[in-house]
Design a protein that fits this description.
Pathway: Amino-acid degradation; L-leucine degradation; (S)-3-hydroxy-3-methylglutaryl-CoA from 3-isovaleryl-CoA: step 2/3
Family: Belongs to the AccD/PCCB family.
Mean pLDDT: 84
Largest sheet: 7 strands, mixed
Number of strands: 9
Pfam families: Carboxyl_trans
EC number: 6.4.1.4
Number of helices: 11
Order of helices and strands: EHHHHEEEHEHHEEHEEHHH
Catalytic activity: 3-methylbut-2-enoyl-CoA + hydrogencarbonate + ATP = 3-methyl-(2E)-glutaconyl-CoA + ADP + phosphate + H(+)
Helix content: 25-40%
Structural class: alpha/beta
Low-confidence stretches: 1-11, 14-25
């Protein structure tokens, strides 16, 4: 790892230190619709009404998904002085610039009564300091930001798009690693959890910048992402990275340590740099 830095919690400060390659943005907002004469058919109005209803249902579903976890989880998250993941992205992006979100419906009704809004992770293309970047942000309000099988697929898909288009990757990391009740489904395949770190390494070797911002307690798989990045930024008094947290250390060795003693910058920098 080339460097680990401390920043106070500010998206714009993060922007100022990023060094990434130049990309081009093509504005598609001026696209126009060419008429086909279908509006003259008698069933047109009925179809139009049904489509409007379907679009309204979709927009309502997406609005719920964008809230992330339930109200209790969101309050617990913000009570720690942490921004919600979509607010983090808004702070990171250039003011007024668009954000092309990917795979918003990932995880929707996929696990029965278990809600996993957006698959527990937000991915999309946004402009940072004038450069188009792939942004991957864990949502800790959804099961602690842990990785379900669909979370892995969504993360890997974002990386594939970034690799194909040579987009610098910015990882806003706040994750407890693999979702343990479903870990048997997370690891075994070629395109499962381990592929995330393979993609980071191969993209870095091709000059596609990999930058991680540690915004919370990142355990196990959540710790690998910043460890594999070209540059890691750890938010002071918030970010920690370790394979196992204090309870696991106590169970394994009997030693009692705090999260900061185990995973903050001073210790991490000493052992990783």
């Amino acid at each position: 790892m080339r460097g680990i830095q401390i920043l106070q919690r500010s998206g714009r400060q993060v922007c100022q230190i990023l060094t990434v390659q130049r990309c081009h943005y093509h504005d598609m907002s001026r696209a126009c619709v060419i008429g086909t004469g279908a509006e003259n058919f008698p069933e047109f109005e009925d179809n139009k009404a049904k489509m409007a209803s379907a679009v309204q249902d979709l927009e309502s579903t997406i609005a719920r998904i964008k809230q992330g976890g339930d109200e209790k989880a969101r309050k617990r998250h913000t009570s720690k002085g942490k921004l919600l993941p979509r607010d983090r992205i808004s702070c990171l992006l250039d003011p007024g610039s668009p954000f092309l979100e990917l795979s918003q419906l990932a995880g929707h009704k996929l696990y029965g009564n278990e809600e996993v809004p957006a698959g527990g992770i937000i991915t999309g293309i946004g402009r940072v300091s004038g450069v188009e970047c792939m942004i991957v942000a864990n949502d800790a309000t959804v099961k602690g930001g842990t990785y379900y099988p669909i979370t892995v697929k969504k993360h890997v898909r974002a990386q594939e798009i970034a690799r194909e288009n040579r987009l610098p990757c910015l990882y806003l990391v706040d994750s407890g690693g693999a979702n343990l009740p479903r870990q048997a489904e997370v690891f075994p395949d070629k395109l499962h959890f381990g592929r995330i770190f393979y993609n980071q390494a191969t993209m870095s070797s091709k000059g596609i910048t990999q930058i991680a911002v540690v915004l919370g307690s990142c355990t196990a798989g959540g710790a690998y992402v910043p460890a594999m990045a070209d540059e890691s930024i750890i938010v002071k008094h918030q970010g920690t990275i370790f394979l196992g947290g204090p309870p696991l250390v106590k169970a394994a060795t009997g030693e009692e340590v705090s999260a900061e003693e185990l995973g903050v910058l001073t210790y991490t920098a000493k052992h990783l740099v």
